[in-house]
Fold this sequence. Notes:
By secondary structure, this protein is an alpha+beta fold. The protein has 12 helices and 14 strands.
Amino acid sequence: MSTIPEQTSFKLATQTLDAIDAATLAQAESGFRPHLGASQIGKKCERALWLSFRWAKRAKFPARILRLFARGHREEANLTALLQSAGVRVSTFDPATGKQYRLGGAHFSGSCDGMAENVPEAPKTRHIVEYKTSGAKAFAKLQDYGVQKAQPTHYDQMQCYMHWSGLTRALYVSVNKDNDELHIERIDYDKEHAESLQAKAERIIYADRMPEPVSADPSWYECKFCEYHDQCHGSRMVKEVNCRTCCHSTPTKQGQWHCARWQSDIPTDAQRTGCDSHVLHLDLVPWQMKGGYGEWSAVYVVDGVEVVNGEDGYRSSEMIANAALCASGVADEWRARFPGVKVVG
């Protein structure tokens, strides 16, 4: 008979951990990126990219994942120091701005990790620098196949950076988080591929309607784990009210977002909250749009009933909270009895 191991008694500091998690979440960004990022453009699904650019869903990560992102950022300084120890001259800040190198335009852009010179394989060639961290399994794949096949989104990201900067080489540095092993690879600029990525981004940015998904099958592996699965294959109900989910706003070639209702460009901070004239984009709701109502409202058919959405009817936040109640007539009765009452759930 095997010996039963003794139980070890220890005290978990769960309150401390909870406090750390709460602080991590409190310090997180809003979840809305103003631009379509070079780090995203390699994703296959143009619908997912369009929904991201349109702020259809706020990016929310658990505290553990946010700490994992932060660890990746902290690793950049260590990897820079290692390159510099080998005689590589690395600049991580643009001398013109004193900030991280920003490349691309207003709607489609990214921040590269640095620029390198005196790389031993090509001392006279300036390189884009991109740092990544990998788990053991992904790192092994990277060593077997190289970045283009093993991490195509990283490859596409660097192609964009080279395209925007005018450089023809990139230095990809990945560290195995389990044992500190390094994979360092030089990437050549592929003009045709980079231009195709630029065209893809512009196609997504300026699309008035939601593009087709990578698959119509909700069980497809790329769809099953997508953060937009419900909006694509499920209820299709958007949860966010902001200028980018509104019918009245469009991105412009000048790098702005323009509001047709107020005939003005919209500052990024103002885009996050929208206004009471907000009308839900017809591709972001499960209902059929029957047409306009007045000049700046729309009529949606909810449970067979026509409901006005916009400044002449129910606010978008009310439609999201309980569209069925808006369509039932009960909400109209309450609004008549109590002017200013809102549907909140």
